[in-house]
């Protein structure tokens, strides 16, 4: 099967063969082989060749191709949503919102490009000072599996808009969504070589990241891989690296009047996408005492009744599966490890069928666990920590190397102000779920969550570099010369 798209041609990968599976039925959805180092090199050459022509197109011409891509996405919306659901396990209603986010990314990227990286000019002395932006050249985009359409799209669209050519290395767990997305770009009339698809697993990623012909790498994925890439790019100030990584996100609950609203917001924060969003609440900080006990009892009751099912189950479930049987196993083991170290199961996460990656929501009280691991458990497992007072809650919230998202549920504005000032994260919310960040806002974290290259609305910033020019159409001698220079 032709799994790679290089220089406008579909080609068979010559690397390791792999498949993608429906995580619930284990049905094979896609089969192909990854790109070898030599194939990565030929894709980089193709992107290098295509770059000048694409960069020299006018902005309006590039926008026209992007708009044709949005139209292609709309034409294939049902097929794309179904493929996202099948390959990731997320329910169809959610996969449909992912396709909508992909379509909306076009207009938002154009707006952001004009606002943040557009052109400005004004008089400066006897010249005109002009600010323009240029693309970096050839950039690699690495995608994660949890939003196989929307998140790579969040790098690819602004990168192409700015005039870069792109090498797209999707997650090896979601190759079919990537292939469909690239077909939509082809339908949109993107010239050959401007976007190349390099399917494959880690080896393909390593070969691409190490290729000297790339000018930058835009990555969304785990902190472990992101850290590795950061080390690899050390001493290469000539290459731009944008890292969007995970989080160990805290959600602090204060004693609020509307307990059910708190429970609903916690569920939307912790269990949407089966907990497979980088913004999901991982740690729930609950006050000690009777009110906190009541909140947890209600949370456990409502979470225990959450519908979990296959992506196309009717009536629709709230949660689908996690990405694979391997991921389900790792999460079950992580739960066992916490339980063995003093955690108390308020609601134990279960895997009802051994051959399906469906997990039910889990809630563990980990207050008594000594040396709680500061790691992101990427699934529907929420860890509860009871706190004595608000200062202790903030200290606990900040007790992480990550810094992606943090939230407070509280009726007190003063407490929110304190929380906002003292919490260290790129997203800080008040009485709103942690998940569902807007594409019209910057999106990125601090600490181990990112390298200060926020994505979404600010992706324009890392897709182009500023060029400041002083310009005047004719060269004239200044009326007053610098002391010590004689022109006579
Ligand atoms: N902050 C953000 O915007 C987001 C972060 N994430 C994070 O992504 C993770 C889940 O996604 P995964 O696909 O598991 O991430 P991952 O890090 O395993 O893989 C991401 C990509 O890197 C490639 N890769 C893996 N090892 C590599 C290496 N040594 N060199 C080069 N490439 C390599 C993979 O093949 C894949 O294309 C979670 O930790 C989640 O928090 C997910 C979505 C958004
Ligand atoms: O990238 C954007 O356009 C906005 C950010 C976004 O969509 N965030 C989602 C996905 C989180 C994840 O990356 O897993 C969210 O906050 O739910």
From TrEMBL:
<dbReference type="GO" id="GO:0043824">
    <property type="term" value="F:succinylglutamate-semialdehyde dehydrogenase activity"/>
</dbReference>
<keyword id="KW-0560">Oxidoreductase</keyword>
<dbReference type="GO" id="GO:0019545">
    <property type="term" value="P:L-arginine catabolic process to succinate"/>
</dbReference>
<dbReference type="InterPro" id="IPR016160">
    <property type="entry name" value="Ald_DH_CS_CYS"/>
</dbReference>
<dbReference type="InterPro" id="IPR016163">
    <property type="entry name" value="Ald_DH_C"/>
</dbReference>
<comment type="similarity">
    <text>Belongs to the aldehyde dehydrogenase family. AstD subfamily.</text>
</comment>
<feature type="active site">
    <location>
        <position position="278"/>
    </location>
</feature>
<protein>
    <recommendedName>
        <fullName>N-succinylglutamate 5-semialdehyde dehydrogenase</fullName>
        <ecNumber>1.2.1.71</ecNumber>
    </recommendedName>
</protein>
<comment type="pathway">
    <text>Amino-acid degradation; L-arginine degradation via AST pathway; L-glutamate and succinate from L-arginine: step 4/5.</text>
</comment>
<dbReference type="InterPro" id="IPR029510">
    <property type="entry name" value="Ald_DH_CS_GLU"/>
</dbReference>
<dbReference type="Pfam" id="PF00171">
    <property type="entry name" value="Aldedh"/>
</dbReference>
<feature type="domain" description="Aldehyde dehydrogenase">
    <location>
        <begin position="10"/>
        <end position="461"/>
    </location>
</feature>
<keyword id="KW-0520">NAD</keyword>
<feature type="binding site">
    <location>
        <begin position="221"/>
        <end position="226"/>
    </location>
    <ligand>
        <name>NAD(+)</name>
    </ligand>
</feature>
<comment type="function">
    <text>Catalyzes the NAD-dependent reduction of succinylglutamate semialdehyde into succinylglutamate.</text>
</comment>
<dbReference type="GO" id="GO:0019544">
    <property type="term" value="P:L-arginine catabolic process to L-glutamate"/>
</dbReference>
<dbReference type="InterPro" id="IPR016161">
    <property type="entry name" value="Ald_DH/histidinol_DH"/>
</dbReference>
<dbReference type="InterPro" id="IPR017649">
    <property type="entry name" value="SuccinylGlu_semiald_DH_AstD"/>
</dbReference>
<dbReference type="InterPro" id="IPR015590">
    <property type="entry name" value="Aldehyde_DH_dom"/>
</dbReference>
<dbReference type="InterPro" id="IPR016162">
    <property type="entry name" value="Ald_DH_N"/>
</dbReference>
<keyword id="KW-0056">Arginine metabolism</keyword>
<feature type="active site">
    <location>
        <position position="244"/>
    </location>
</feature>
